[in-house]
Amino acid sequence: MRTTTKLALAFVALAGAVGTTAYAENNASEKMREGTMMRLSKAIRDSNGTITFDQFSGAMNARLKKLVADNGGKLTVAQVADALEKARFEQMAKRIIARYDTRGDGTLTSDDITSRQKKVFAILDRNNDGKIEKSELPKGGRFGRHHQWGGDGNDGEDMQ
């Protein structure tokens, strides 16, 4: 195997590792494969059915190459870690905005938060009496096992 081919494969492997870590949430490998296949499919469509190594490399490593370029041509472990953390938190922030944004303008206001809280409260207040009782909380899952709601087997002794 030629040295350039080995280097290219090593670079692709590194980019794959970086990408996988950046999406290290639920089903990270599956999301990574889907993203990779979507980028490759788009590159192939844009190039009349075939792609060269340079096109493949561009489709696979655009973010990583930009990160290297933005940092003077070299990356340290700390710079890669910072970029991965930023990417992870940006994804989380996008999900939060999408979940709460009632106007669809990509911003979050106090009214958006209050609106979301009212919806969740209404769902939990199963008997519509304007109060949430321990018996109305789900058994387990996201709400039912929280310590402050007595989900630890204390029968609500430590509810606040």
From TrEMBL:
Gene3D superfamilies reported in the protein's UniProt record: EF-hand (1.10.238.10)
InterPro entries hit by this protein: EF-hand-dom_pair, EF_Hand_1_Ca_BS, EF_hand_dom
Ion transport in keyword set: no
Domain EF-hand, first and last residues per copy: 112-147
Residues making up the signal peptide according to the UniProt record: 1-24
Presence of the UniProt keyword Signal in the record: yes
Keyword annotations: Signal
Record-linked SUPFAM superfamilies: EF-hand (SSF47473)
Disordered: region residues: 131-160
Record's protein name: EF-hand domain-containing protein
